[in-house]
Amino acid sequence: MTPERPIPYQDDFKSADEYVDSLLEFSAASTIFQTLCGGVHILDFFTQTPSLYHKVVPQEWRSWLLRRESMELLDFLMRDDLKTPREDSPPESLVKYIKDIRKHSLQRNLPVGKEKDTRLPRQVSVGMIPKKIHEVSRFADYAVKVADDASITSGKKITHFVDFGSGQNYLGRTLACPPYNKHIVAVESKELNINGAKRMDVFAGVGEREKVMRNKKVFRQIQESQKPVETMKDAEKRRAANPQQLDREGVDLRPIKDLATIYTPAEGKGYMQYVEHRVEDGDLSDVVKQIEKLKIEAPSGNLQLTNATGNPDLPKVLEEISKEEEIRLMAISIHSCGNLSHHGIRSLILNPSVQAIAIVGCCYNLLTSRLGPSTLKHPHIRRNLKPINAPNHNKDLAENDPHGFPMSQRLTYYNGDGVRLNITARMMGVQAPQNWTAKESESFFTRHFYRAMLQKMFLDYGVVRKLPADENGPESTEPVIIGSLRKSCYVSFPSYVRGAIDKLKVDPERALDLDGKMGGISDAEFDEYCKHNEELKKELSVTWSLMAFSAGVVESLIVVDRWLYLREHGEVVRECWVEPVFEYGLSPRNLVVVGVKR
User: Fold this and answer.
1) Where is this region: Disordered (predicted)?
2) What is the DSSP secondary-structure string of 524-579?
3) Is 343 in contact with 280 (CB distance < 8 Å)?
4) Cα(86)–Cα(76) distance, rounded to whole angstroms?
5) Strand, coil or helix: 206
């Protein structure tokens, strides 16, 4: 099932190597790309005069871009045929830049004939939204096909699927159920997620609830007498002190949430196993030690095997290897955040038992940096500053983290000092501008505008101070952490300011002198302040559209780096590739990185 191209590059290139060479050259040489992807931060946008728009967008582009409506601009950037003449001709340098971004962004459409989803049984799909159903149904089929092909090639069966960061275990549960009936090892760091997943396993028929005899009358009385809802820690202490919790007549009175979920191996059926483990690198030796080897004796002496993918060669091959006792793993994950994707990819190299991987990454902003500190800003726009209201405990991403980006030697040593993407660039890499609607665009443009206006107001009223420019770039302001606010806060600028101030006041670790600096300002004054600067919103929306469009190359760099890492380990990896596995319109982080061991 190896695709024709090992990475889904555009038709402009003759080979993967030619594409990679051009991608690296463009990302290193284009100043406007580097500025738009890492050099623009919302906090600084209006704290300078003129706004940052006039410093980061080339002069010959500015007036033409400002005349475009939001959706017209998005169509021009991503969908319009650039060869078609326009009445209002765009600058040639802008057209060239758009062509460069388009050709260096990986193709994201599913191959023709691979659009159909497998229908999930109701008891398996319960709790899933349509997006999750699409992802799980497609990925379960995909992972099994990769495993089957690896088994046929090697002559040895993949015995277990290890799901990195399994969460509620939708994927694992699907693979453990018919028609797949796989042995799943769900690796998850949070006990709360594991307990929730086990409850859904019971509903799906993968596991069964521990059966107990109850004195129902006494049990109900105890439930009614429990006034406050106990915390998880209280529940853990209670279970440790009295695991069985028996009444005077010896009847088990544990609530349903405390009952065990029992998984019973059976011929021809899937099996679920949970391992509570925080994955901090690609070494799975601790996980492997906890994996249960199931020995199921079928009447014929062989384990009955289900051919879920319809591969005509599979039954014969698996019949020959069904008695294989060696643990052979496939590491899988849908949207593993940040470094967790790296750990999953490295597991193929670091663990003899891992035979194949299929990893779909997400949350690139949570990646650490292999080449230096994870800066808040591009070095030419903002220096590496800690927010003035950051908590005292250190939550900064690790500096010079060997598990971070980039993974490959090619990107690590490119041009002598390597390819670096700061957190702002990586955060833009998870945008999906092709999916933006007019309503959604207006909504988040408004949110960004309010945040930029608030920072300007903080500066104007002395809450933050302006920092002097250095030899590398212009001046900036002290950053302030606010985070997300309630939906109602975005109804108007006064509502937004009040919501932000209230949130900052509640957290003593992040409090600022807001009462002293801005305590006497009325909502009418806030509203007037916003209206006075309303014309600047267009500049921000145009810049943000350019940033999100350009960030397709950021994601391409991250994904290509992961593919290059596997290819650089050719002594271990027989084949590796990247291809779209989900519909971009439903799940824009849709590129799966696959590796199969020799």
Assistant:
1) 225-245
2) HHHHHHHHHTTTHHHHHHHHHHHHHHHTHHHHHHHHHHHHHHHHHTTTTEEEEEEE
3) yes
4) 11
5) coil
Taking residue 420's Cβ as centre, other Cβ atoms within 10 Å add up to 20
**Strand, coil or helix: 250:** coil
| Rounded Cα–Cα distance for residues 469 and 379 (Å) | 12
The structure tokens listed for 558 are: 């991250």
Distance CA(115)–CA(429), nearest Å, equals 25
Query: What's the burial of 418, exposed, middle or buried (CB within 10 Å: 0-12/13-18/19+)?
Result: middle
3-class DSSP state of 461: coil
- Nearest CA among 51, 55, 64, 15 for reference residue 35: 55
Tokens of 475: 């001046």
Cα separation of 285 and 95, whole Å?
A: 52
Contact 27, 553 (CB under 8 A): yes
Please report, for the chain, how many H helices and E strands are present, in that order: 23, 11
pLDDT per residue, tens digit, the chain (598 aa), is 788 999 999 999 999 999 999 999 999 999 999 999 988 888 888 988 888 999 999 999 999 999 999 999 999 999 999 999 888 899 999 999 999 999 999 999 987 766 677 889 999 998 899 999 999 999 999 999 999 999 999 889 999 999 999 999 999 999 999 999 999 999 998 988 998 999 999 988 888 888 776 666 665 666 666 555 555 566 666 556 555 555 444 556 666 777 888 888 888 889 999 998 888 898 988 888 888 765 554 433 333 334 444 455 444 444 443 444 689 999 999 999 999 999 999 999 999 999 999 999 999 999 999 987 644 444 333 344 455 555 543 444 446 889 999 999 999 999 998 999 988 899 999 999 999 999 989 998 999 999 999 999 999 998 888 887 655 555 688 888 888 899 999 999 999 999 998 888 877 666 677 878 887 899 999 999 999 888 899 999 999 999 999 999 999 999 999 999 999 999 999 999 999 999 999 999 999 999 999 9
**Neighbouring-strand partners of residue 275:** 187
User: Are 13 and 112 in contact, with CB atoms under 8 Å apart?
Assistant: no
State the amino acid at position 267 in one-letter form: E
Tokens of 372: 């230096």
Q: Which residues contact 506 (CB under 8 A, 6 or more apart)?
A: none
Residue 327 CA: distances (Å) to CA of 18, 287, 290, 402: 39, 12, 12, 28
The Cα–Cα gap between 391 and 449 comes to 26
**How far is Cα 86 from Cα 565, in angstroms, rounded to an integer?**
44
Whole-structure pTM value: 0.86
Question: Would you call the peptide bond into 8 cis, given omega within 30 degrees of 0 as the criterion?
Answer: no
DSSP conformational letter for 169: -
Query: Which of 493, 545, 437 is CA-nearest to residue 76?
Result: 545
Check: CB of residue 328 under 8 Å from CB of residue 355.
yes
HEC profile for 122-136? HHHHCCCCHHHHHHH
